[in-house]
Design brief:
With 63 residues, the protein is mainly alpha-helical. The chain has one domain. It has three helices and no strands. The protein is flat and about 40 Å long.
Amino acid sequence: MSVEFFLCVLGMVFIIEGIPYFVFPDKLKSFLAKVSAIPESTLRILGMAAIAAGLILLYLGRR
C-alpha cells in the first residue's frame, strides 16, 4: 500500500466526517447531547460493531 493511497483514504474520512458538522451544526449539537446520555458499554458495543463493519468492507474491497 502506498502513502498516496493512505492519504487519499484519510482525506475521504475527513470529508465524510466533516459533512454533518457543516450541513447540520444545530442538529449535531442536539445529537451529541443525546449521545452523552448513552451508557459507555453501549457506545463500546456500537464502536466495536463499526470497527467490524469497516474491517469486513476492507476485506471485501481488497479481495
